[in-house]
Specification:
The chain is mostly helical. It has helices at 8-16, 21-30, 36-45, 77-163, 199-215, 220-239, 254-261, 264-272, 292-307; strands spanning 248-250, 276-278, 282-284. Among the domains are: 8-75, Orthogonal Bundle (Helicase, Ruva Protein, domain 3); 172-307, Methane Monooxygenase Hydroxylase, Chain G, domain 1, CATH 1.20.58.2190. The two termini are 103 Å apart.
């Protein structure tokens, strides 16, 4: 695009009056390029145009067309004096418009900022409410979990009291001294019996199993396999106390090592049941040291550990070395 051609003489006269080149060119172009008076009238009519000081563009190749005026146009002194006033007025009007536009933009920014602040406060409040609700749900879930554990422990105690021949209701003594008697050598682990066992030993058995479970936390299959294997050893001895093969375990047996032997707590549990390490090669339970009360308590502890999913999660440690 090219700048349209205008009469150079008229353009110079307008510039001498104080009008910028772009405004004078634009005025001449749009007023017909006929006279200074027509150009000044156009400027007065369009002084508030945003593009009044922009150079007009034309697709035509600029051509300087001389205008022959029959009567020369003379710029009066009044017009010369008025031209700066008009230019100054145009400038002031533009400044006023720019200030109005800037105030409008500032108001819009303020409104947008307030809207963002309100949205942010609402989002923060909603997040706070969600956090409060989540904390309440977590507390309630923990309470329900503790209640389930408490009920499970009460159920286990009731079952053990049944095994020990105690009434199901009523508080358990701290260190019960219950006489042990059985006419046969077999202990049928599905029926109640009158047994005697130290509550301290029961705690040590439980702590062995808890410690074993904590070692492999997250691998429930390995824990369950160890507990079930110990249960089989205890049950076999209880049901067959006269059979030596059930009272003798080779420490180097691969099956024993993979399931129980690799855990020192597993070996310690069997020692609490009466087994002794012989020559570093065997775990052996002498026939005269078979204690049905101890075996029954070991069976009850193992059964609780296997069936109670919360076993060992809400308990304190017991020093197994006492």
């Amino acid at each position: 695009m090219a700048v349209p051609g205008v009469d150079k003489k008229l353009l110079c006269e307008l510039e001498e009056m104080g009008f910028p080149e772009a405004r004078a060119t634009r005025a001449l172009h749009y007023s017909g390029n006929s006279s200074v008076e027509a150009a000044i009238n156009w400027i007065i009519d369009h002084e508030n145009d945003a593009d009044i000081d922009e150079m007009p563009l034309s697709a035509q190749v600029p051509v300087d067309i001389p205008i022959e005026a029959s009567d020369p146009f003379f710029i009066s002194e009044e017009m010369k004096l008025k031209a700066p006033e008009i230019s100054d007025q145009v400038r002031k009007n533009r400044e006023v418009e720019e200030k109005k536009l800037e105030r409008s933009r500032e108001k819009e920014r303020i409104r947008a900022g307030k809207g963002l602040q309100v949205a942010k406060r609402m989002a923060e409040e909603n997040e706070r409410k969600r956090n409060v609700a989540q904390r309440k749900a977590d507390v309630e879930e923990k309470r329900r979990a503790r209640e389930r554990v408490r009920q499970k422990l009460q159920q286990d105690k009731a079952e053990r009291r049944g095994w020990l021949g105690l009434p199901v209701e009523g508080p358990l003594s701290v260190n019960p001294a219950i006489s042990f008697s059985h006419e046969s050598k077999n202990l049928e682990l599905g029926k109640p019996a009158l047994l005697t066992v130290s509550a301290r030993k029961e705690d040590l058995m439980r702590e062995c199993l808890r410690s074993l479970k904590r070692q492999v936390m997250g691998d429930d299959s390995q824990v369950k396999k160890a507990f079930q294997t110990l249960l089989i050893y205890v049950r076999n001895v209880a049901n067959n106390p006269d059979d030596e093969k059930f009272r003798k375990i080779r420490l180097g047996n691969p099956a024993f090592q993979s399931r129980v032997g690799k855990f020192k707590e597993g070996v310690k549990f069997l020692e609490l049941c009466g087994f002794e390490i012989i020559g570093g090669e065997f775990l052996y339970l002498p026939k005269d040291k078979v204690d049905m009360a101890t075996l029954a308590e070991a069976w009850a502890v193992l059964n609780s550990a296997i069936t109670n999913p919360y076993f060992g999660l809400f308990s304190r440690s017991v020093d197994a070395g006492d």
